[in-house]
User: Fold ArsR/SmtB family transcription factor from Streptomyces coerulescens.
Amino acid sequence: MSKQELVVLGQNGQSADCCPGQLTAPLDQDQAADLAKIFKALGDPVRLRLLSLIASRAGREVCVCDLTPAFDLSQPTISHHLKLLRQAGLIDCERRGTWVYYWVLPTTLDRLSTFLTTAQKPETTFLTTAQKPEATA
Assistant:
């Protein structure tokens, strides 16, 4: 195994601000309500899977006809879950003839990512294998 030293930001004069989290102040009531609506939509396993299926599709859009067979649910139930994802601002859609095509809205995912990203605290350290203290029995 390699005994490379792991560089920890915030030590030896290096800046810990290379990847700061964007949450620098507490959420106000409106921001919290908006994010709660998005997280509530993602709180259901079916909707989380739907979002995952849409986001992972090459071309970044998918026909509802390709989503429905992936679940043991009726088409109206799938449509209901897709409607809730749309209302939360996670996806959008367009009707093309008989079918509806869905795609992820990256700005909403970026907003969630920003909220969930936290800055690394300078006092946080990572130990390499050679630096780990031995367990005492």
User: Anything to note?
Assistant: The domain at 32-114 is CATH 1.10.10.10 (Arc Repressor Mutant, subunit A). Strands lie at 61-63, 91-96, 99-104. The radius of gyration is 21 Å.
